[in-house]
Amino acid sequence: MRSRFLVLIFCAGLGLGCSNEADPHAAGPTYPAFEAAPKLAQALTRTAEQALPDVDTATQEEVAELLEAAALGGRLGHSATGQLNDMDGKLRTAALLAIVEDLHAEVGARRSAYAWLRDSGTPGLVPRLTLRLKYEKDLWSAVCLGDTLLRHGNGSGLDAVAGVLEREAQDAAEESARSYAATVIPQLPAAEGWNAGADFAADWQHLSEVRGLWARERRLSPSEEQIEVFHPEVEAEILRMATRLASQPLRPVDDARFVLTRQRGAVIPLLFELAHDEDRYVREHALQTLSWMGPPVYAWCQARAFDYLANVSPFLGEASMRARALEALGAGRMAIAMPDLIHWLEHGRREEAASAADALLRCADPSILPQLQQWLAEGTPPGLPAEGAFSLYTLWFALEPELEAEYPIEVFEGLPEGERKRRERWASERLVKKTVDSAQQD
Amino acid sequence: MRAFPALIAVLAAALGVWVLVSLVRPPAEIEVRGQMTSQDCAECHPAVFAEWQDSHHAFAYDNPEVRKLSNDFRNEECLACHTPRPVLDFEPGERVLARASDRGNGVDCLSCHQGPNGGMASGTLRPSSSAPCQPYHEARMTSVQHCASCHNQHKTVDQWHAAPEHLKGENCLDCHMTETFREGGRRGRHHGFPAGHDKDALMKAVRVASGTDALGPWVSVENYGAAHNFPTDERSRAADVQVRWQDSNGVWGEWQHVWRFRDPYRDEVDLINTQLPSGETWRENLPVPEGMQKGEARLLYRTQPYLPDEESVELGRVELMP
């Protein structure tokens, strides 16, 4: 009894002793508890049967030989084509992907494999083929990538198609790529008043519009519904790609981010699932991927009535994830997030304050103006890094475009040019959001 | 009478609480720094700060060569090590993540010194307890694992592990943070981190030699001082052996390429890794063109493979006698 009494006194003393170190965030918003779990492993298990099979070297070589023989034509070519057609679709797709990913594969072999993927690949090819956009240097192959992805409902390769069309062909190979690129345009979703192939200027205009729509909303036509879930094969391959987020070497991480940011909006709930993973690298990169996706996040959430803020909330309560969560809020570009962002701008640590200011630049509406002007008049919140200060000024200029004001010299020069450009891009994306909003009102 | 032992116990407990609180909290008169930046460090450590400002760590984000190679950091993977969050926030040797603020500082004081609880980690065994930055001893500060978080991305720390024992020293600090005496006789480690951008450091890593044997003149390059490959780290770094000959009229010919030390980019599939491992020597006999009376060989170091000769650093030049 007595010992229990002493323990109580001891604990009370400890409590008093620490009471002066009050949590500065205690009076702030409250969030649901964050819980980590082996989410990625669970998801991989759940989708294992849908994933493309692993291909051994012997199978890859066998398929490469069949491709070579098929290209010869004649009886041998006919037989090889038959054998390729008779293969299990997923196994053939996986083997063809292995060939195009092989650094030692010749351009000719890659072209054949790309063509077969285009004509016979199963949907699971999308994530790995998206990654080829980062590495493929052969122009014809790049066009084929764009063509194939388009056939599977992904517009990430249209920039490559446009790039080849814009380029003046230097030789026969480039001319061939250019001719091929021109044939991709008629495959674009139809639009009112557009007659495919009738007039190159109109074709180009339509291609530009589709590229713009894909960049803003990750869909190919205004009449197309935003998908809620991926084809099971695509989902399985996206999750396999996401395992690279945990890599210690950085290149695989960047590869995964490259692919994940170029998928349709249905990737958003998957990223939130991964953001609860037990591996901190998977968690952080999953949230970061949302930030990098930018405009499509908002468009998809609006179309699917997805409660983005509720999904970000648990990460705001977790100190180790907060800065990334604030950035993700910015990507969501919902003004409803402003109170949280203002709180963390004023009460967060340096990194959090910078992320909150950046996020406000991306999502704040004009109701923030009085608060914003007060901050700027008082010399920005104390401890705000140069990035945050620049973001607040950029936001001010974006909200009041008629304003004749300039960045204070110390704010402008306090930031490297690349960081200034990043924030100017975010400011320009605010106009994109307006376009999405007005399109949805229509 | 029975209340007396209880009173003693209560007083003892209160004393225990006081001692504990005193231990876990800094003395009241010390102003504890909250949200520090690296610029704050300059107040008390101006000499160290100045050394760092001149280092490639401070230049890690602004370096135009890095910006070019990283596609102006559109290759986001490069950001993690060129503007890292505090390394001590991560498990030993595990990679760091990029920070969102103060990116212009590159690899700054906080990247290496800020501890997970806000205090500043130091390799010093008994750091000053009265400093506002709350310094504390952290054994990891002097371990190779501390550097590995970034410098093993290109396998330099793995190379160190495989190096001959007599070249390894204790850790990376032996060569890259040598002991220095600052104003007032204070002893410390130099924060200039001399490495691939420092000619003296490069000269301590390799030496060029020449001689003549039955097959004619030869040239060699020995990695006698680096406890990792030469060159190391980024794949862009290269070192070339070149040779030129003088004819009987005393006229020197053009420099000709003999050998390149370099780890190729992953898509340079026709090339192999020719970095010179620690402690090893490369040697080659050079055929003497007819009519030449003597020759010269030199070793040029380039921070990127296409750097012109005149912008490269010459690490040694030797005479070749037929």
Q: How would you name the oligomeric state of the polypeptide chains in this document?
A: heterodimer
Which structural class should the secondary elements of chain B be placed in? alpha+beta
Mean pLDDT score of chain A, rounded?
A: 91
The major beta sheet of chain B can be summarized as: 4 strands, antiparallel
Strand order in the largest sheet of chain B: 8-7-10-11
Number of helices of chain A: 24
Distance between the termini of chain A: 73 Å
Based on CA atoms alone, the radius of gyration of chain B comes out at: 26 Å
**Spans of chain A with pLDDT under 50 lasting ≥5 residues?**
1-24
Total beta strands of chain A: 0
Structural class of chain A: mainly alpha
Query: In sequence order, what are the helices and strands of chain B, one letter per element?
Result: HHHHHHEEHHHHEEHEEEEEEE
Average pLDDT of chain B = 89
What is the CA-atom radius of gyration of chain A, in angstroms?
26 Å
| Sheet with most strands of chain A | none
Helix content of chain A: 55-70%
Low-confidence stretches of chain B: 21-33
Which H/E pattern describes the elements of chain A?
HHHHHHHHHHHHHHHHHHHHHHHH
Features of the shown structure:
heterodimer; A: 442 residues; mainly alpha; globular; disordered N terminus; B: alpha+beta; 4-stranded antiparallel β-sheet; 3-stranded antiparallel β-sheet
List the helices and strands and how they pair.
The complex is a heterodimer of chains A (442) and B (322).
Chain A: H1 2-19, H2 39-47, H3 57-72, H4 74-86, H5 89-101, H6 107-120, H7 126-135, H8 139-151, H9 158-166, H10 172-184, H11 200-217, H12 232-242, H13 250-260, H14 267-274, H15 280-293, H16 295-304, H17 308-316, H18 322-332, H19 338-347, H20 350-363, H21 369-377, H22 386-399, H23 409-413, H24 417-441
Helix pairs in contact in A: 2-12, 3-4, 3-5, 5-6, 6-8, 7-8, 7-13, 8-9, 8-10, 9-10, 11-16, 14-15, 15-18, 17-18, 18-20, 19-20, 20-22, 20-24, 21-22, 22-24
Chain B: H1 3-24, H2 38-44, H3 46-53, H4 64-69, H5 79-82, H6 109-113, E1 120-122, E2 135-137, H7 144-151, H8 156-162, H9 165-168, H10 173-176, E3 179-182, E4 186-189, H11 199-205, E5 206-213, E6 216-223, E7 238-247, E8 256-261, E9 281-285, E10 292-302, E11 313-320
Parallel strand pairs in B: 1-2
Antiparallel strand pairs in B: 3-4, 5-6, 6-9, 7-8, 7-10, 10-11
